[in-house]
Amino acid sequence: MEKLAYHMQQQSITTADYIAWAHRRLALLDESPALFKLAAFNEDANIFEIESCFEQAMRELHRTSTLLSRVERDTRNRHRRLCTV
């Protein structure tokens, strides 16, 4: 993400940067419909379509991480209650 953020800040980002980011996220076992779509783009795709897909992937990944955090917290709380009985 740092490399992608650097390119964004420098206004030198390319479709290849977005696609490479998607491939790195998939290698980390992240999943979202938009992430899969972004990884499947060709480098000659329209940059605006790629950016839209990237933004959607970020929203989906954030929702996933928020949901996982909530599930992990609830699981820890249940475990604590069971251990204190």
Automatic annotation (TrEMBL):
This is Uncharacterized protein. The lineage of its organism: Bacteria, Bacillati, Bacillota, Bacilli, Bacillales.
